[in-house]
Amino acid sequence: MKVTEHYEKASEPLISFEIIPPKRGGSVKTVFESIEKLMPVKPPFIDVTYHAAEAYIEELPDGTFKRHIKRKRPGTIGLCAAILHRFGVDPVPHLICEGFSKEESEDALIELNYLGIDNVLAIRGDDSGTSYNQRKNGTVNKYASDLVSQIKNMNNGIYLEEIANADPTDFCVGVAGYPEKHFEAPNLDWDIHRLKDKVDAGGDYIVTQMFFDNSAFFTFVEKCRQAGITVPIVPGIKVLSHIRHLTSLPKNFHLNLPDALSNEIFNNPERVREIGVEWCIEQCSQLLDYDVPGIHFYVMGDPQPALDVIEKLPTANKV
Ligand code: FAD
After folding, report:
1. Which domain holds residue 134?
2. What sign has the CA pseudo-torsion 110, 114, 117, 118?
3. Is residue 318, in this structure, part of any structural domain at all?
4. What is the pLDDT of residue 197?
5. Above 80 in pLDDT, residue 133?
6. Fewest Cβ atoms closer than 10 Å to its Cβ: which of 170, 191, 243, 282?
7. What is the rounded average pLDDT for all residues in the chain?
8. Cα angle 113, 46, 5; round to 5
9. pLDDT-derived band of residue 316, with 50, 70 and 90 as boundaries?
């Protein structure tokens, strides 16, 4: 079922999750165990991130250097198929522009269609140092809005090459939004207009980047509505549960941590997880009062902090 149908049919805000595939050579059993722990919450859908190949340099014993390009976390499509067929939950594979030609994106979408997967989150991805997209200039999707257009074209039976009577796909397409603006955007208003481009291209719903200050989300939603964006906007939420999150979250996700949160952790580092869970419960309760369609938890590899929060929330995925 499509993500938008889940929201339309729900009588309560829906709790959904985002997980990451294991590192190359890692055990998928560990991921299945994590998903198993999420099942009592009855998530309507689970997102699985996609990871572009990355360039890295290896120093050889003779002191010379060798450049490698490798996808560290392959397996998104396989994991999505397992989520659908093993757990009976709708998977939402992320599909990225970075590292994909348009033809490769089309092939991936054909695979997803054959697997009976109804949803995709269309994302640009970040430059992973492979220069892949620059090398294939012209045959790649530059922005997420270009990928959304490609998917919507396929939904209308328009493939890259003209194919008579091509079978149309029927994907529901999610896109990413940034309450604190995307780091490359000159300002929030400009970024919201680019978000509107994605929605106008066919984005059916928006999931936001994580944030820790709800006022940023409320302002973002207000500005989106003023800009004419009418699709559901789902807050993406992460529980701050490690001391290293104080630096890694702002650095990797270009977000601000409120002083009240960071100061409390700084003064009580041994209680970091407890403080993070309490902060998140408060944040989610406010969001539920604001009538969000759902809350999307970034669980990454560890579902427990999110489960500790959900246990205290006045919602259980009732449809
Ligand atoms: P876009 O919407 O293409 O925007 C990127 C930047 O370009 C923005 O600054 C925007 O304002 C600007 N822009 C857009 N259109 C134009 C235009 N026409 N002209 C000029 N500027 C323009 N990364 C992964 O690698 N894998 C994942 O699975 C993944 N999942 C994510 C899920 C969510 C919910 C979120 C919020 C992010 C995710 N990311 C993921 C990170 C994402 O790839 C990065 O944030 C990336 O830098 C931007 O992706 P986007 O789809 O928002 O890009």
Report:
1. 3-310
2. positive
3. no
4. 98
5. no
6. 170
7. 93
8. 65
9. low
Q: What's the number of domains the chain is made of?
A: 1
Q: Is residue 319 part of a domain?
A: no
- The CATH number of residue 210's host domain is 3.20.20.220
The whole-number pLDDT of residue 166 equals 93
Residues near ligand 1 (Cβ within 6 A): 49-52, 94, 96, 123-126, 143-145, 176, 182, 184-185, 191, 194, 197-198, 207, 209, 236
**In-domain check, residue 110:** yes
Give distance in angstroms: CA of 96 to centre of ligand 1.
Answer: 9
- Asked whether residue 289 is domain-assigned, the answer is yes
Mean pLDDT of 255-277: 97
Reported as a pLDDT band with limits 50, 70 and 90, residue 131 is low
**DSSP calls for 167-186:** PP---EEEEEE-TT--TTSS
Q: Ligand 1: which of 123, 197, 237 to mutate, most ligand atoms within 8 Å of CB?
A: 123
